[in-house]
Design goal:
Largest sheet: 3 strands, antiparallel
Strand content: 5-15%
Number of helices: 13
Mean pLDDT: 85
Helix content: 40-55%
Number of strands: 8
Shape: extended
Radius of gyration: 29 Å
Structural class: mainly alpha
Strand order of the largest sheet: 1-2-3
Length: 340
């Protein structure tokens, strides 16, 4: 448990000289009105509330000037996005997608005042995406993220609502009605290709592939499987992933595991602790043991005394990630001469 004490909220106090309520924020006294009155209490709550919402900083006072530039708006938004788009203490892929999208508005319009950014400017940014060779779906996704930047600006009273409302008039690119590149639909792998790849992968990766074929699980769900997440009290087992694609919406995810899936899982479940069922470390140990059995020459005493490095640069992990799972399959596709 952390020993760090929670940071206190500045208190509501009496200023003896004027008999007014006062609160000190960022070294500056803010007078709230008659001490003890409802109005002063309301002003205290409003001021401290805004101070907390803005990360324990007072919002900059608005002037009748031009407002923030695009660069200033992006900088303010990016601090919020880095906190929001996190999972298990790590940035999500959405943060990187947002960074790439904002690049198309920052480069041509960074010094433009945000209030002057309208639908035509957004279309100019989208044309730059098309010229870059991005697909229609990616162009539409980046355009939505740029709109999200301005929606956040309205939400935090940095720009007027009319700016975001005008951008909403820009419709997404339609299939066959835009110069943007179209992509081929992603189709499922052919079953004969899957069967050809299975002998070229390790036993844990084989099991994960078979489970996906039998249940339709996503890669992110199969790599995180633990014995404690599987209810084996009934004839059909039930797997409830800790994390899944829509858990941030409050949705629950259950995967039914029938007899064939149970047969694939049973060897892993019976010897599992509370860690992931499928481990690259176990796969590497099994591979080394198999290579020792397949030796054609006897092991010398010197080889028998040899010990592995205490801190190898690329030690196998205790669990697969979607990236390492994908790489294992891609390497197997190359060995089996199957299109990946």
């Amino acid at each position: 448990m952390s020993s760090r004490k929670p940071r206190r909220v500045p208190s509501y106090r009496l200023h003896k000289g004027s008999r007014q309520a006062v609160v000190t924020l960022e070294g500056r006294d803010h007078y709230l009105g008659k001490f003890g009155s409802d109005d002063s209490q309301a002003e205290y709550e409003r001021l401290v509330g805004e101070w907390l919402i803005h990360g324990r900083q007072l919002p900059q006072e608005k002037s009748p000037g031009e407002g923030p530039t695009i660069n200033e708006l992006i900088l303010a938004y990016w601090e919020e996005a880095q906190r929001y788009y996190q999972r298990d203490g790590k940035p999500t892929s959405e943060l990187e997608s947002m960074r790439l999208a904002l690049r198309y508005v920052r480069r041509p319009y960074g010094r433009t005042f945000a209030k002057d950014f309208g639908p035509m400017a957004l279309k100019v940014c989208r044309e730059a995406m098309i010229e870059k060779g991005l697909s229609r779906s990616v162009c539409n996704g980046y355009t939505k993220r740029i709109k999200r930047l301005f929606r956040w600006g309205v939400e935090n009273e940095l720009i007027l609502a009319s700016v975001f409302q005008a951008l909403q008039a820009v419709r997404g690119l339609r299939k066959g009605r835009s110069p943007a590149r179209e992509t081929e639909p992603i189709r499922p792998a052919r079953e004969e290709h899957v069967e050809a790849v299975l002998p070229a992968v390790s036993v844990p990766v084989q099991a994960m592939i078979r489970l996906q074929l039998l249940t339709g699980m996503r890669p992110g769900e199969v790599v995180q499987m633990r014995a404690s997440d599987i209810d084996r009290s009934r004839q059909v087992w039930t797997y409830r992933p800790q994390r899944h694609k829509t858990d941030y919406r409050g949705h629950e995810r259950e995967v039914a595991l029938g007899p064939k899936a149970q047969a694939v899982l049973r060897p892993f479940v019976e010897r599992a602790n509370d860690g992931p069922l499928f481990s690259p470390r176990d796969a590497e140990g099994a591979r080394n043991a198999r290579r020792r059995l397949q030796r054609k020459s006897p092991m010398t005493p010197c080889q028998g005394r040899r010990r592995g490095k205490s801190k190898p640069q690329k030690a196998p992990k205790d669990r697969y990630t979607t990236a390492s799972y994908r790489r294992a399959i891609a390497r197997a596709c190359e060995r089996a001469s199957v299109p990946s």
